[in-house]
Write a structure and sequence with these properties.
Oligomer: heterodimer
Largest sheet of chain A: 6 strands, mixed
Strand content of chain B: 5-15%
Low-confidence stretches of chain B: 1-7, 591-609
Largest interface: A-B, 180 and 171 residues
Shape of chain B: elongated
Main location (chain A): membrane
Structural class of chain B: alpha/beta
Number of strands of chain A: 10
Largest sheet of chain B: 6 strands, mixed
Mean pLDDT of chain A: 83
Shape of chain A: elongated
Strand order of the largest sheet of chain A: 6-7-8-3-9-10
Radius of gyration of chain A: 35 Å
Strand order of the largest sheet of chain B: 6-7-8-3-9-10
CATH architecture of the largest domain in chain B: Up-down Bundle
CATH architecture of one domain in chain A: 3-Layer(aba) Sandwich
Number of helices of chain B: 20
Radius of gyration of chain B: 36 Å
Structural class of chain A: alpha/beta
CATH superfamily of the largest domain in chain B: ABC transporter type 1, transmembrane domain
Mean pLDDT of chain B: 85
Order of helices and strands of chain B: HHHHHHHHHHHEEEHEEHEHHHHEHEEEHH
Keywords (chain A): ATP-binding, Membrane, Nucleotide-binding, Transmembrane, Transmembrane helix
InterPro entries (chain A): AAA+_ATPase (IPR003593), ABC1_TM_dom (IPR011527), ABC1_TM_sf (IPR036640), ABC_transporter-like_ATP-bd (IPR003439), ABC_transporter-like_CS (IPR017871), P-loop_NTPase (IPR027417), Type_1_exporter (IPR039421)
CATH class of one domain in chain A: Alpha Beta
CATH topology of the largest domain in chain B: ABC transporter transmembrane region fold
CATH topology of one domain in chain A: Rossmann fold
GO molecular function (chain A): ABC-type transporter activity; ATP binding; ATP hydrolysis activity; ATPase-coupled lipid transmembrane transporter activity
Number of helices of chain A: 22
Protein name (chain A): Putative ABC transport system ATP-binding protein
Amino acid sequence: MRVPMSLDRPEAAAPGLSSISGRSFLTTALRFSPQLRQGLLVTGLLALLAGGGRIVAPLTIQQAIDSGLAPHTVAPAVTVGAIAVLVAGASSLLLNRRLQEKVESALAGLRRDGLRRVHDMAASTADRVPSADLVSRLTSDVDQVTTFLQGGGIQFVTNAAQLLIAGVIMSVFSWQLAVPVLLLSALLISTMMLMQRVIARRYAQARRDLSRLQSVVAESVAGAPVIRSTGTAARTARKLDDAVDQARDSLLRTLVPLHGNTALGEVTIGVMTVTVLLGGVWFSLAGDPAQPRLSSGEVVAMIFLVTFFVRPLQFLVQSLGEAQNALTGWRRSLELVATPSEAVTDGSALPPGPLGVRVTQVSARYGSGPLVLHALSVEIEPGEHVAVVGRTGSGKSTFAKLLTRRVVPSAGTICVGGVALDRIASLAGRVVIVPQDPFLFDGTIADNINLGTPHTAVSQGNAAGASPSGSSRDGVERIVDELGLSDWLAGLPDGLDTQVGLRGERLSVGERQLVALARTALADPDLVIFDEATSGVDPATDVAVQKALAVLTRGRTTIAIAHRMITAETADRVLVFDGGRIVQSGHHSALAARPGRYAALIDAWRNQ
Amino acid sequence: MSTPPESRGRSTLPDTRRGSALLAQLAGARANPGPAAVATVTGLINGATMVAGASAIGWSTDHLVVPALAGDAVPASIWWTSAGLVLGISAARWSTIFVRGLSTGRVQYRAQAETRRAVIRRYLSLDPAWHRRHSPGRLLAHAISDVDALWSPMQFAYFAVGMVFMLLLALTELFFRAPVLGLVGLVLVLLVLALNITYQRLLAPRARDTQAARGVVGGVALESIEGGPVVRSLGLTDAEDARFAPGVQRLRAADLRMASISSIFDPLLELLPTAAVLVVLAVAAPRVQQGSLSVGDLVGVVYLLITVAIPLNVISRFLSMLPMSGAGRERVQAVLDSDEVLRHGSRHLEQPSPLRVDLRSTGVTRRHRQILRDADLTLEPGTVTVVVGAVGSGKTTLLDVAGGQIHPTTGTVAFDGVDVRELTAGVVPDAVAVVSQSPFLFAESLRDNLALDRSLPDADLWEALRAAAADDIVRELPDGLDTVVGERGATLSGGQRQRICLARALVRKPRLLVLDDATSALDSRVEQQVLASLADLVADGGPTVLISTNRPGAVAIADRVVLVRAGRIVATGTPSSLLDVEEYRRIVTAYRPADRDEEAAGDARTHVS
């Protein structure tokens, strides 16, 4: 009664990740988990011993019957059998431990390498793959392998060994009897494989219908307020009913092939038993009846062996789906690990001090979409404060993404601190972006700010765990003081030790920006890119953000994606983006005085 | 809520109220009596065929194999009988396997579907307070995985019933052949059952550990990946690896702890029947020699012992699923038993004109916390009222209670003089349209999203879209009104969603329109446009309007402004009269650079330059 999961899961790798074909799977798996290669021979031997132990019973029976069941011959046969059972048990135990230890250590390695790779692969790739997909490659996909291993994977190995041994013994007893058994098995395998494909298809449909049901339920739960306020519960109930019925019906459709397949195995066992029973007796007597070709013990043993041969066969065919599932999971995590790292190992270091930026004839696009930046050229001096303004879709956020290597230019060059951007060994800590809605790790405010401390986090290794040690706590407090955040923190129930919640959701957007600014200040970068929040910042926090920002930007090159006039007013220079080009550049007062895009923008701001 | 239309293949809802997983499975059977009866009968027959099959092999050994190979003449009828017995019993076995499988599946999947339907329908009728206490993730788990768990033992139920029957038959048969054989059989059965139960006992806590460790690994992985930009930007890859490693190690250790149990028990369970065969051989051989047992008897017994592993495995799998099923049942039943359903009265509203809303000493308490107290407010028909206040001041609660979306804990809310609690079902949704802070769209076409359960001419939809400044959005979409938006409207931007939601509210031609910070994602130009068309609508005899906002734009069209602080209405008046209130002034002028707090701005400027 095994439930095959899938033989037809979509095979394509996520965009940007390495794709691994079925053929290169094994070599890739061994490349990333070399421990799997060691001691294969011993593993194979253990499997044979374990599988062989299961066949002790028919062999002992044969010995006992043929010796006329005389106690003095039965005793040695039983003793030999008992030893064989003990050996088989021990082998099975060792095989079990050995395989699981090897595979689990390989999987643990895959998980850690995978997470590292997520963080050092090209940012543009990481952005393209949905987070949920990446997470599943480190979690549920890997768990599939363990689940398979524990729920039948080891048996898969011992069953294969048992099948092999039973087949060999049958052929030794009488190849003439083994031939019809093997032929019937071949017929059984091919029919079962065909059926298995049908089962897999129907299960795939059932899974799709179940996930549709899941989305409909999720939607009706999330949309409950809308459903209630519009009085449309009946409409949603109809939709849900359909999804429930469909999921049930598609599950019901799996029953016939699933149980048909199991029944088929029993049909085969029945036919084979009769073949061996009658055929065995007939064949033994077909030559010289006085000297039968087979003893009665051998015929009886053959009858038993049929069962010992067909049951593992059934098991193997029916577990194929699960095996496939486990392999797919393994392959998906390998795809992540095999994706090349973006780390520039032989790159140049950035010069110390504030960094200038030189952008020459740069164009950019997303995927194969239209150009969103057209041959852009601009030079930003070290220490200059630049505000970038423009309407939604003008290309200003793409510009910011270019500078942090989140988008790769399709043409042109970008130099930061005089070094070509793609030749810089690491931007970490030197070029830092503060996004519109910064991400905070679950933990305290202090933990999150402390992440900015250059490299202390490595030894300490936690963002969410214990509080930072004494010295780093001092650093956090100093930076909070410098940025003028003490008043804001004093207003929080636990000050620096306030828990921010998952993704920092217990803080408002503005407050998250404050934490991100402090974190950035501690990192002491030389180029800061700041994406201003558009709405939802309450006035009190907004004032604090402006003050902290003013402190942070001193002595550094800054580029602010501005959504409000105050930011543009206070910048050294304003770059006005429109349609993927810089259409105006200059100080606020100069640009505001003459008609143009900037003046129009100021009008819109004033009317807010 | 209407009653469900009876459609194809619906069965009865199993009554799972009585408190155990086993009783729940029985209830599932009672709800589907036909398939349950077939599954029971075929299960029993199947169990019997396993014992009969072993006997047939034994009979054939005694009457065919041994005499024929000893050189005795065996009549043709014996050959035919042997073949007939083995094939006949095999036919009975495989046909019952097939039929039992089909009927079991019917019982399981039908019971599952009906329970699921009941849970989901209950969600639709439970009131907002209940929904607020339960996260969407949990509700989804109740409807999907808990229902699955509840009915999962069913897949082995009839198999297990048949196997219990088989064991009884087999032991009887063994005792009948020779008491000592029966004893060996009984010991084997007891031993295997005891091992299985110990195995499950040992495995269960380790499985929970593994599940917990998986949770930790998943949590850290998700957070680290979502925080990827921070990790890159600050160079935290090593730190993240160090944070991830303990969880990974813990999971590996937990997986191996499970493996260390299974590596002992699996071989034991696998080889015990073989060991029993050896014991039987040792004790039975002398009896065969004495002639008190035939060779066939011995072969039959061995055959039986070898096959006994299957039923024991099935029974233990069935038993091991019961705890999970019980936990699932409790969670499912908690939903089905909750009685916090929406309550309604029986009164109707008369006129089609704009609604008058009166709040009298209205208060809302949630988890012992008063989030709105003593609110007195009248929304005159056809006026625009704007509520302002800091984040967390109680604006949303005021809007919810005034719009009849929630009922007050104290005081009253009246629509056209009728207490909202006395209104019959459907009256509030017909009269009031709400656009909330987070715009929600169904993963359907825009047409369906706008019309919902009504059938409206396209002209009406376009008119509403125009008023919500959303007509351009729809016109630019490849399929126009037939465009299917992604899950929760994900293919549209926040601002676009807000406007579509506004259009959805307008198309219902409400008598009261409630906008809870519903223009926050619009840029100021579009916001002005939307507010202007709203003002036109009201001037043309349109709805009474209640708006909450943090932004000053909406104040321009307000007849009245209400300032809320810490759950209380602290000031009401015309927009200009309220300018004397400092808090109000600060809120509505925060984003206007010209009126900005000069000191703060000056500060910022000196620092930047």
